[in-house]
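Section 3.1: Structural characterization of target chains.
Under the original work plan, the team committed to producing a structural model for every single-chain target entering the pipeline before any wet-lab resources were allocated. The record below documents one such target. The sequence was received from the expression subgroup and is listed exactly as submitted; it comprises 450 residues.
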Amino acid sequence: MSVVPALDRGAFRRRLEVPALRVPAKRTGEVLQRLRPHLLNMARRRNVESAGAMKMVLLSRELPLEGTLEALPPEVREWLGEVEVTRHAIELDYEYLTAEEALRMVLPVEVPTSFEIVGHVVHLNLRAEQLPWKSIIGEVILDKVKTARTVVNKVDVVATPFRTFPLEVIAGDDDTRVVVRETDCEFRFDLREVYWNSRLQSEHARLSAAIAADSTDPIFVADATCGVGPFAVPLAKHPHVTVYANDLNPAAVRALADNARRNGCSDAIRVRDPGCARDFLRTDAVRYDHVITNLPAAGIDLLDAFRGLRFDENNDGRGPPLVHCYCFAAKTDDVVDAILRRVELALGTSPPPPPPTHQARRRRPFPSPAVDEALRAARDGATTVRWIRNVAPSKDMYCVSFRVPRACADLEYHHRHPPLEAPTLRLDAVEGAGGRTSKRPRTVAPPPGP
């Protein structure tokens, strides 16, 4: 295998000619405003240069050096009228290039164009043909992403039962302990030890706000696969919401307890010992108004845990809880029907039908921002499927919301999937796991048991 050269930042220096307009100084402002999308618009590079008593307005590199005016929209040409078109040479070096531009100049393979930023860590999923160039890729991204201190690459496509992947540091500090801020909350965790998806930031905020706004009465939420708390913590910061949280991963449970303490809501989050989501739901599901299962690869399978559970009709009139189950599904014309069939198979009975207003477009899921509409329909007895995000060319992520059918109570529970084993961790050994650290008084009492 050939030796990959080291990154030579001085080798990026070059001279580039771009089209330009020579205009009177007093006309510069209006020209810049009218031609905004057609300007040079390079990072750290002005769009205007002095040219004696005139100004040189630099245009986009996408415009041709010959026939520049003809390449502009007709209305722009008409507005410009008689204007002098010329060329202007600019000196470019590494500092002026984006990460993608710099990598295109040195890589003989396709350039990685997308990555995830988690705190100070940039997370890449490099393909096999890009791996020989991983050091250069890491250095360039470290230079170009201002908040980055560490660049990592996922080493293996096989995740652990905790949804974590082995990570290799390819540039920067060997430090994956991050601080992430979202939904007015601060989260601290080690990216090597727990699962986190920054692309779900908007969804975390949407569902948390919608559940909290569902009622002004005390609300009890079961977060069956809570992770480090992207749903649990913002929910628990509402004075009328109490969250019971569970995760299989001991590191996630430790991080959640710490995050609850840091965000002043430890008294509103009851963190369970690390354990199986099914056992958690069967032990406590009858106590909750809402259940969240954010485990898209297997969330629907967990719904069999509701078989045989009888919900207390006298529990302040709550009845069966609303479930918000995240899942993956192939992109098909009948994706809503396909998801409902999977839910029916797991529950052992048919979920409620989609809302009447949704029947005409039943094959199309609700859009991601329509969480309030989806929640209202689910509260009224319907099942809603909401599109969340694209995951792969042929796969999307969805959230299905519905009230647990009463018919589930008459079904026999068969544990179709053996529980995943996790090390035992006592929460009383976790610093900050308990204690009343909320900054405002709480009057919510724990819900009655089954």
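The chain has three domains: 15-96, 99-175, 197-429.
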